[in-house]
Records
---
Amino acid sequence: MTKWVVYMLRCKDNSLYTGMTNNLENRIAMHSVGKGAKYTRNRGPFVLQYTETFQTRSQAAKREYELKQLSKKAKESLPLKEKHDYL
């Protein structure tokens, strides 16, 4: 069964981008070469700040929406992902 991931990237301008995917490694690669979301074009490199995994696309979409409604301060208070590699 495919797992869905909600993720948050910190962009080079210190902004945060939240998205969801069923292939995180591929999606981050797409962001890194400017073929991901329009928002992330020319904002790399990125730091993967946060991830959550879900069983269904519906659950992931709901959580993505919830996260996008948070203020930047609230997003920054979420627990950080352990590995902070620039992507």
---
Amino acid sequence: MAQAKDRFVLTEAMALRRSLTRTGKDIISDKIAALIASGVLGIGDELPSERELATALDVSRETVRGAIQILAARSVVEVSQGARTRVISTDLSAFHVDIARHAAINSYDLEAVHAARLVIERQVVADAAGHISAEALARLHNSLKAQKDCADDPVRFLICDREFHVTIYRECGNPLLTDLVTDLYTYMMEYRRRVMSRPGAIAKSYQEHKAIVAALEKHDREAVLKAFGHHLERIYTTTRLMIKTSKSQRSTGQKKKSPVAEMPVEGRGNTNRVKH
């Protein structure tokens, strides 16, 4: 019993030491790993340039360069001279990222996740309205500038979008709620990427983000709730439509391409097809 307790204390002490010695590049490498885990970035995707990532994550280019070197050393990304850095692996075991949590969130249906976001996220942003710091507001304004510059780049916009949302979540003052709502944010990111690729989608999100920041600057709880409520509702409706469209396209594609669908049913002649 005493030995088990000693091992626990030692483990906790080592974890604390690691957390205290983490550098900026370690933190940014974890952030990029989280983007991969959540589906914002996938295998084969090119990372934005160092300058673009530095702007999106509100850090220096040197910090981004160091973070990419860490990811490359663990064979998560491939750095090639004269070409953009690419994601080549989703093995993120060396990083402070819980992939299982992202997979677990996607196992729920859209209605359940939307209902949870309405309850938790509204509380989080309402609390943030009262607690938000001048530093966080400055980061949000920097994020808005970065978002404005990537109107035709859905992946880069989503990187900015995640930083924007998480910055607000952290200002609620409750780390547990921050983690919960950040997990909910990652829901079905594959579909969010497709949604943001549609004409006008980025512009709409950008305008909604501006309204959210304006309300936060006034520390106006009701205005923040209204602005975020409108934002969440649009995320819900566009994601629902994209999921429905994707399912319909897959179903149509299977009927057209499946060799089984073109095979006659035995004993019924060639005019009868197998139904799926």
---
Amino acid sequence: MTPAEAQMAPAQEPANAPGRAEVPVEGRVGADAVSGANEFISWGARSDVGLVRGHNEDSFLLRTPLFVVSDGMGGHAAGEVASSIAVETVGERAPGTADDVLLGAAVEAANMAVIEAAEQGIGKPGMGCTVTSVLIEKNKMAVAHVGDSRAYVLRQGTLVRVTHDHSYVEELVDSGQITADEARTHPSRSIITRALGSDPDMYADHFSLEVNDGDRIILCSDGLSSMISDAEIEALAVSSATPQQAADNLVAAALTAGGADNVTVVVVDVLNDGIADAARRRLFHRAAILSGVIVALLALSLLFAVALVRSEWYLGVNGTTVGLYRGIKGEFLGVPTSELVGTSSVELSDLPTSVQDQLAQGIRVDSEEAGREVIDSYHDQINAEKDRAAQIAETARAESDPAAAEQDGGEQQ
């Protein structure tokens, strides 16, 4: 195979774990298998007529994120009708979110649908079924259940049954009269104490559970749980790489153990419980808020700086004259932080050297008016200095030439 062909080849299904010789499930008459996946969960299902019964009365529904298993009762043209009506009704009435109360209501609606179908001549009188349903939404799973079909959760290698059988033998187990293993072979194991199809007031058990990445959910009819122990279900579920392999291996184990009943298994793996995504969204939201706060603070700081700059005034050098500036002398990122707002005719050379040095650094004033008053004072000082210099010059000239001074005085008279 060339490198290009290797890249184009589809990913191979993980190899099934080796085990004991079992009845093959592929290609069997009366069997059905479905698998699929999305970004949150993957699933696989298999239903088989078994090795004793002549027809399959089980039904299952995979309508992501809803999964339902139903075990029909009442014989040919009855049990399969009841279970089919039940799963379709639950599918139609199930909520869009993991709300166990509404899911329980959907199962109770399915009960009335089975009763009304029998009254209308659909199926047979007395037909009924069990229902075990789950609806998975991120890290929450709603469960609604009636009868002796079961829901299990496999977490970190440990299998836990989360539903309670509505059966006579379960009551015996609860009272301590028999063990769970004895219940699987008890002669009264087929007696159901609560099911769809007989009592209009029937109610469904319903509750919610938290599920996490890596959890495996198993729904099954009693064709599995009555044939193999929970310990064997756990071992097969742990050793199966994919949901479809797990469903196939569990059905094969039930057939190998005798296949005395129809057997249906639905397996769902939780791939993404949404917790990490929610954490990332919260982090992003916090980062966005923090960024907004920082931007707002920077904007406020900028506005404050601009306001501060525009409230400052100083006198500085404007070429060879004195200028009036608004702002703070200097630059920020190459941008001048002041602007020339007033010019004058005051020459720097007419001012004392100390004043010239101060003007080179910028002489702060309180306002534009104060700045113009200082410039006027410079004018006054320069004019006064010029007048004083003229007087000194005149006095010096008079002292050096009295006749000229006297003549000037006579002319002035």
---
Amino acid sequence: MRKVVKLALVFAVVVLPAVGVAGASAQDGAALEAEVADAVAQLTATYGANDIEGYFALYAPELTWWGPSGRWDKAKYLAYWTEYIESTGGLASAENSDMQIAVAPGGDLAVASYILSVSRANPGDAAPTVTYQMSPTLMKRNGSWTIVHLHFQIVPEPE
């Protein structure tokens, strides 16, 4: 009986994942990368349009957000971003470029990295434009990509 259990465990842990990975084609990988690129494009569009509801709908409830102010959860980021838009008018535009995407073999986890260029609507004392290096981690849940972690940093101005 123990031998049967051991064989079943080996099959479940070694064979099934290998079949799943080997079964994924390059076409499947390209389709998954396109889905992730679309999710990031939607994130950028809602961000640049100051669409708080649409923007935060793309984030998982357990979001971790890591930026210059440290690590925040979704509620803290939502409060900050809502206040920012209300007090400054938000953004005039946002555009991403230099996208690179890596999708895990199981097809339900991905990391994107890209450059995000932002123009502020009413910059006040801040720079009118800012460029970020972005790196969201996405999970596919119920057929949709959702962002579970976002790390970013500001690209320093050239000296």
